[in-house]
Design goal:
61 residues, mainly alpha, membrane, transmembrane, transmembrane helix
């Protein structure tokens, strides 16, 4: 399993917990959706940045 998939699964579990907590606190649904989308986008951006394979420099001789 790739590093990004493991990171994404962990982030989805975190996001699900935050959504569940927001529902228990009676946060309006529209704000739960907005917050979830923002966090999902942030999670994808961070996941790609942390798990990206560095480019190998090519010899240009």
């Amino acid at each position: 399993m790739s590093t990004f998939v493991i990171y994404a699964i962990g982030f989805i579990i975190l996001l699900a917990g935050l959504i569940y907590g927001a529902v228990l606190l009676n946060v309006p649904t529209q704000w739960i959706v907005v917050g979830s989308l923002v966090l999902l986008g942030l999670g994808i951006a961070l996941g790609v940045g942390k798990t990206r394979v560095k480019d190998v420099p090519t010899d240009q001789t």
